[in-house]
Structure formats: structure tokens, C-alpha cells
Design brief:
With 182 residues, the chain is an all-alpha fold. Helices cover 71% and strands 0% of the residues. The structure holds fe (ii) ion (2 copies). One fe (ii) ion binds at residues 51, 54, 84, 87, 162, 166.
Length: 182
């Protein structure tokens, strides 16, 4: 795409300057914000619920990991739990920047989450369930990223960063399964 001609760009700047003084209470959300805000906030709250469910599931697995091979696996569960918590924080912060309210209400959290909370009994069960949850997050976050397109680059970049970590998590879990000769 070529840059706008100087004249029209200056006119645009004049309009942008005027608009920026209106609705200052909306902070970072300007009239030029191009995504449907309600939908973005709903999707981000679903992603937030997904991350919280993942924190809880990984914590449960960390404390329940038992047996000969449990040490390194439990360490991985704990690391993933902490990283999912970091994702939840990033998403909650972005929701507030977009003038929304992060939903931390425990009631309904599993309904809002894309991934499920499955306890699993054996170490292998736990790893498999975590891998399934990561693969769900990878697909649903990919959908969100493609849907955002260039309408909200900041939210898209954040989700891209999170997606990359979920892909690492899935790969870690696959390696753990391979190490346990399943
Ligand atoms: Fe995550
Ligand atoms: Fe993850």
C-alpha cells in the first residue's frame, strides 16, 4: 500500500487531532479503533478463562504427579502453570486498556474456557490431557488472531506471543510423552 499524498495526510492529521480531544475518557480506545469492541472483549474474557483453567489444571497435576518419572514432569507442570498465569495477567491488562472488565468470577469459568479441566489419574493421563488442552488453545487462539487481522494490532501481537508459548508447551508435553515411552 502506498503512503497517502502529503496534502490528504495533513487533512487526516487535522481530523485525528480533533477526534483525539473527544471521548478522552476512553483512553487508548480511539474513534479509529477498527475491531468490534464488544466481541474483542468477549473473546479476551474467554481466553482469560482458558488460561485460568490451565493454571488450575497444571497446579493440580504438579501436586498430584507421583512415581519414578514424576520429578522432571512435575517441574514442567509447574513451569507451565506459571506461564499460563502470566498469560492471564497479560490478557486481563489488555482488557482494562480496552476499557473492559476482566471476568475473574469463578462461577462459569469452565463454561467460558475453551480448554477443559481434566484431572487425570496417571502421569501419562495428565500429560495427555494437558496436551489436548494446549492443542485446543492453539486452535482457538489462532482463530482469534486471524479474525483480528489488522483491526487491533496490539491485541493480535499479544495473542501471537501467547500462541507461540502454547505451541512450545505442546511440544514440551510431546517430548515428555516420548520420554515415558508411551
Ligand atoms: Fe497460556
Ligand atoms: Fe500452555
Amino acid at each position: 500500500m502506498s503512503a497517502p499524498a502529503t496534502g490528504s495526510f495533513l487533512e487526516t492529521i487535522e481530523t485525528i487531532r480533533k477526534r483525539a480531544r473527544k471521548h478522552m475518557e476512553k483512553g487508548a480506545v480511539t474513534e479509529g479503533y477498527q475491531a468490534p469492541l464488544d466481541t474483542v472483549l468477549r473473546l479476551l474474557n474467554e481466553a482469560l478463562a482458558t488460561e485460568i483453567v490451565c493454571v488450575l489444571r497444571y497446579k493440580r497435576h504438579y501436586y498430584m504427579a507421583d512415581g519414578l518419572n514424576a520429578g522432571p514432569v512435575a517441574a514442567e507442570f509447574l513451569q507451565h502453570a506459571n506461564e499460563e498465569m502470566g498469560h492471564a495477567d497479560e490478557i486481563a491488562l489488555r482488557i482494562t486498556q480496552l476499557q473492559g472488565a476482566p471476568n475473574f468470577n469463578p462461577s462459569g469459568i469452565t463454561d467460558r474456557s475453551h480448554a477443559e479441566y481434566v484431572e487425570g489419574t496417571t502421569l501419562v493421563d495428565m500429560i495427555r490431557e494437558d496436551l489436548v488442552a494446549e492443542r485446543i488453545a492453539i486452535e482457538s487462539y489462532g482463530e482469534i488472531i486471524r479474525w483480528l487481522g489488522d483491526k487491533d494490532p496490539t491485541t493480535r501481537r499479544m495473542m501471537e506471543g501467547i500462541l507461540a508459548v502454547e505451541e512450545e508447551h505442546a511440544d514440551d508435553l510431546l517430548s515428555l510423552l516420548a520420554g515415558l515411552n508411551t
